């Protein structure tokens, strides 16, 4: 590992089920806003301090809806053919989190007065954030606060907030102001994107309806409150104020010393995007009324029941390292909070936690994130592959723009169109087509969902296979091997190369799968096979070309070095001692000109090693070790996608210290802010990568020949670890300690799998076995 990637000291208190902030420091506000984010895959909110600050404090008071975006024209100094014309940005929507609180005429903020006690907790088991503290005003008024909030994973349009405040040494007037504030904007958009269309109050429900200027998407928000004093059954209704872009509610309540005042606030959001037509304002008002009637406790119960089921299926238990137990649970919760579950939205690189990467979806989904959901919550995995089917027409259009047949999926997008102006690292990453197909193949393998394959999957596989047949060619000087030139692989520091090893192998997999599906489809559903062929105007000759290309694919290997060259030129470039790079010059993408990055043997991230994982069965352990030895000293890990892959391969080849240290970096990348950029949002691919480090790394899980294979070991610092896998409708729990592994079939009648080279069969009558670790 690089010296500048050594593991860091924890920022937050270590606890297996909670992220605990014990001291309030406003200088860390922007980072903590990200860490204490909440979401449900539809709505996301940064961990804002609701009452705000008296002074200027760094931060981004952000709330987001997955897939709700504005377009803005991309301005080029020099435009060239087929450059994308429009960018897309996930919008910071109306602010519903802010609250103002006054004791008589003194406003409460935590950066004035004095905090006697303080804690903020992200309760990972329950998916909520709480703050408890005692605050003393500059004039000596003292009050006890308990603040709690959650975004419902069960009722996806709903958020809920509860404020409890008790005056400890005074009686007086407490004034509370809440609002729906539509005067918001994104940091990286030139113009304010949202225009207010309607606002008002109906039956004590505040509402605001806005529309985006360019995309013409609508968003509506409804808000309702319940406010009461301890010992009284009656509720207090506020005064309402309607302003140009804001609707406010205000209470002035006489409160006695030690009398508890409780405010519950409910909000509901609804949007229509380009694929939807619905009455969003009517829906938002209806939903918020339902939430208010249901009440805070009932909504929280429904939410926590959803999470209870999630943790029962998904939890990874680590015995012997509290920091890593905390880290992996934090990662899994944030993945759940960020992932779209409707088939029309995806999971952004930063989730719903910040404006980094503008809320864009990348190929990270298929390669890193989908496996986490596939083997625990396959219904979510299905929604992710359905997103690619639902944006297939956009991919077709992009292929036409580049004069290709078939379909070309984008590098970064929200709505399905390519939105990156930097083609060297975006459009040139043709491997994304194969990544999408790899995800489809793995989804069908693990779920046996043939209905999806027939109705959706085959069409994606064939249309994207057409592009490979056009993109590559049979090159005489390579012995008529099928070569793919001028592409960028996963390593974005080597752009526009010939025969990127990852790309060629993945394209071969893709083409063989397309041919395999043609034969299967013809036998299993002949009428639909012919129907789809007619729809696509697919000729038998094309299928033959796919097979010829796959059979003759050029697969890079260098006999002298005994490795797989990353591309045709990499091993001939000038070596560079990356240990000598100053920390201040990292990541290189922000500190070196591309021409200097491209000229050296420097990798941004795992490329060949990622291939060694995805198509693991094609490579021997010896070859994986040789590639690890060659590429590890050349990799800066400037991408958060890198460390987890190095950890997994290190486990396989026996480099246990590398595996553990890279896992530590992956599992706590955001909690310990390894890259000093958490304030911009979390790293969802790395979060899923932490799960891979355990399951694919330490437990050695691979899936090939329609079988699960495990080669488990336990890191020296651990006593044991435990996780579950759902495969073909069978749930298998794996518990590993220093000496042995216990496999338990929790669901399903029968399952066969491999423990090292030993085939094991479990059934409902004999559902557990204990075997020694090799």
TrEMBL record:
| Classification via InterPro entries | 6-hairpin_glycosidase_sf (IPR008928), 6hp_glycosidase-like_sf (IPR012341), Gal_mutarotase_sf_dom (IPR011013), GH65_N (IPR037018), Glyco_hydro_65_C (IPR005194), Glyco_hydro_65_M (IPR005195), Glyco_hydro_65_N (IPR005196), Malt_Pase/Glycosyl_Hdrlase (IPR017045)
Please list the residue ranges annotated as the Glycoside hydrolase family 65 N-terminal domain: 21-268
Q: Name one GO biological process term.
A: carbohydrate metabolic process
Q: Which UniProt keywords apply?
A: Coiled coil, Glycosyltransferase, Transferase
Q: Boundaries of each Glycoside hydrolase family 65 central catalytic domain copy?
A: 329-692
What family classification does the UniProt entry report for this protein?
Belongs to the glycosyl hydrolase 65 family.
Q: Name one Pfam family in it.
A: Glyco_hydro_65C
Instruction: Please name the catalytic residues of this protein.
Output: 492
- Give any GO molecular function from the UniProt entry: carbohydrate binding
- Name of the protein: Alpha,alpha-trehalose phosphorylase
Which residues does the UniProt record annotate as the domain Glycoside hydrolase family 65 C-terminal? 701-762
SUPFAM superfamilies the UniProt entry points to: Galactose mutarotase-like, Six-hairpin glycosidases
Q: Which residues bind substrate?
A: 363-364, 604-605
Coiled coil regions, renumbered to chain = 522-549
PANTHER family cross-referenced by the UniProt entry: GLYCOSYL HYDROLASE-RELATED, PROTEIN-GLUCOSYLGALACTOSYLHYDROXYLYSINE GLUCOSIDASE
Which superkingdom? Bacteria
